[in-house]
Amino acid sequence: AAKEEGKNSFHFFNDQMLIDISKALELESALQTALDNEEFCLFLQPKYRLDSGDLDSFEALVRWRHPEKGLIMPNHFIPQMEQGEMIFQLGRWVISHGLNIIRGLERAGLGSYKLAVNLSARQFCDDKLVDHLQACLQDMPGDRLELEITENVLIHNSELAASVMKQANNLGVTVALDDFGTGYSSLSYLRQLPVDVIKLDRSFIAPTNESEESRHIVTSVIDLAHKLNKYVVAEGIETKEHLLFLQEHQCDSAQGFLLSRPIDEDELPDVLAKGDVQQMAKSHLNADVL
Ligand code: C2E
Ligand code: MG
Ligand code: MG
Ligand code: MG
């Protein structure tokens, strides 16, 4: 019995770990295939200006259209891609493909929009990133592109991140601090980095109906952002009350399921041609102050 116990307690490397490793390797090779076969696609979620109600930009959200498993959300594959360099290739694809969509809409007479893309911390180590931005923006003003970065970008290698952000800024590209308020040292980053936009995390928006504290946080962040000459976007707007509260407190833009879910790139031209999505914010906002 002692022998049995000894055997069983020797658990440095067990079957579950072997299964996990082989699953991770399988996912990694499937992801490389997905990159090579262009199995990724973008969903675009509108952002609306609260001073006019206009739809003026789209955030690109990547999905993996798996040939058998269907649509896979980014939290299932971005972390794995960030372990290595696959995230670099994916990130560059999101930028070039996203801007191609924006150009296509413009050519089709469906409007001129800005594109926002998400960059994770690891992507600042991509030494081809800045050249790629420049190449993608040959025929477009740089301010048609925004980089959404999260505060954790700055935990590691913040000098490199700051330098990439400055180079992007020099091309006219704007930078937004995503999920603002959920990371570390938000306030010091606002001083140190070339940030143009604060994107208030949806965890602050959801409780504004019930919680006075949340309302104070939201209005104070808007006020702070404006004093620092920055633009504020609120994400995760799910109710009309959220939207009207933000309008009343001079938030600059809003995004969320109330206004529009992220739209499949393949459906976007038809959706814009119909025209309803452009009217979504106007239909909810207080018209007296538009
Ligand atoms: P994020 O940048 O904060 O993106 C917003 C997420 O919130 C999206 O989820 C969006 O579908 C969701 N969302 C939008 N409006 C609402 C709302 O009103 N209510 C609720 N409950 N959710 C809302 P998604 O597409 O699953 O993306 C999750 C995260 O994955 C993103 O968070 C972003 O950090 C990351 N991600 C997405 N695309 C990319 C990419 O191309 N590159 C990188 N590095 N990360 C990406
Ligand atoms: Mg984002
Ligand atoms: Mg966000
Ligand atoms: Mg968020």
UniProtKB/TrEMBL annotation:
Stretches of the chain forming a coiled coil according to its record: none
Q: Which UniProt keywords apply?
A: Membrane, Transmembrane, Transmembrane helix
Superkingdom of origin organism: Bacteria
EAL domain: which residues?
A: 24-276
Q: What is this protein called?
A: EAL domain-containing protein
